[in-house]
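Lab notes, practical 5.
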Amino acid sequence: MKHRQVVFFSLAAFFLVAGLLSGSRVFYVLLFSQLFLVLATLALNIWAAITFTYTQELSAPRTLRGRPVTLTLTIHNEKPLPFPLMRVRLAVAAEKSQQDLVFNLAPDSRLEHRQEMACPYRGAYSVGMTVIDFLDLFGLLRLPFDMRLLPYYRLKPLLVYPRLVELSRLNMPALDIQQFTRHQSMTDDHDQPYAMVRGYQPGDSGKHIHWKLSMRQQKLMTRVYEQATEPSVELILDLHRGGHEGEYASQAEDIFCETATALVYYLLRQNWHLLISGHGQQLQHLSGSSLKDFQPVYQWLASVRFDSRRSFVQPLRQSLGSSRARARIILTTRIEPELGSLLGQNRLSRTSLYTLIAGPARSNPNETKLAGLFRQSGLPVWFVHYGDDVARVLQGEW
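Output from the prediction step:
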């Protein structure tokens, strides 16, 4: 409590006690004068909270990590009375970060504030005003007003994409094949390339009927689509913070998603059939086979939450035994010796295994020990830290 508040309310207590003990009216007059002053300042604060108007605009709802956006906040006082001192808390594009804006407004005036946000980490954010503190002229009362409690108020959504790093090659021999055989089988999936027609069979979908050919041949003909069964790649993502907290957790998540984005873009550009398994609080699957499938994955990587709370060893063991991918790339933030032991048990399988461990700018002393376990198992492992050149790491130039 500020010094003036201590003095003010101490005097009020003194006037009350003195009035009760002496019965003198002057103490009651002073006490009620203070009371009326407090009520007047409270009424002014409430009036300002109810009547002030504002606009807030975001220069872009989406951006790339490291590319700034600007939040423009304009507050109007269209009344004949001045506003009390206001402290506005602004949520910005950084985890658990906020900015304070302190000002007061004269009658018939406005304030325009431009808040540039650097967007240092990928993620989905809600930015804008959160809590407004109204402070009266005498500094006696503070009235906090949470804008988020208003039914019509909404923070501005901002999606920050991870950086997109284009790789010229990948230091993973099993994925360095530019030409590979394609085998075809027939399917009813109309998202696959069109192959041939056949006579209508009961149960065929009406949207697969080739109407022009049916008119010419005077019988119903059904389109059949070919299904490509090319060698596939599984990208296994461990959506766990790896024991990091605060700024270090944000750094680990950011470099994790930047690395995953580079891998996905490269593999889809090579037209590999890609399966992405996200092991968080719930298991999530995405897939793609060309660059046209990249944008949904990119958007998912920008907003995915690292909410896993369980060990990665058990779900990874199940994942390694459930699919027949040509290669598996494991991306995690954890430094766990059990991971090297588990993968060592699968080194003789036909599936190639590659492991990448993402972390904050500071290195973990346990990385050397884990790298030794991987070398003993004959398995490759890469460590990528926030601030590293992802292209050089993945292309084997470091």
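Observations recorded by the TA: Residues 25-51 form the longest helix (27 residues). The radius of gyration is 32 Å.
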